[in-house]
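Field reference: sequence -> structure
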Amino acid sequence: MRWLGKRYYNLEALRVRQGAKGRGVFTVQYPEEKLETPEEFRYIPFLIYEEKPDGTQEDRCTSCGICAKVCPPQCIWIERTNDPKTGRPIPAPREFYIDIDICMNCGLCAEFCPFDAIKMDHDFEIASYDRTSAHVYDKAKLSKPVSYYASIRPTNYAREEAVRAAEAAKKAAKKAAAPAAEKK
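Structure field:
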């Protein structure tokens, strides 16, 4: 422990850290002033939904359960929707819960989601004034539109949309080539 003081608290270290471009010590009056959140900052996960022209919302989540399986603290619970007539599963979650008190914000759920339905949020102000309130977020509280994701992570959104457009173009080219191959 003795070397720690000599290494970090000497005059040479201060000159290196406080160069000509150093800002020095500053204070941010937090609730009134806020620092800009970096684009790659991640906190709690949220679900993305697409907004249709008729005003309806279509979830990207298909309730496959991969996010719940890879979650280290097991804080994600999903209930799959079943067709009332046939009893077969429909690719949409009926219920989706994340216990924010248990979530360790690792981002594995967002990384492993094959449908890009889960993304990590920037909203870190989730304190409550009641000690009995649990931070178990349901589907309604977790769902946010794609436009929100585009606003908090513009670089990632542009990259993902470029990949999505390239895949759509590849599928369209493959469909166009299929009838031409059948005619021969």
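Note: The mean pLDDT is 86.
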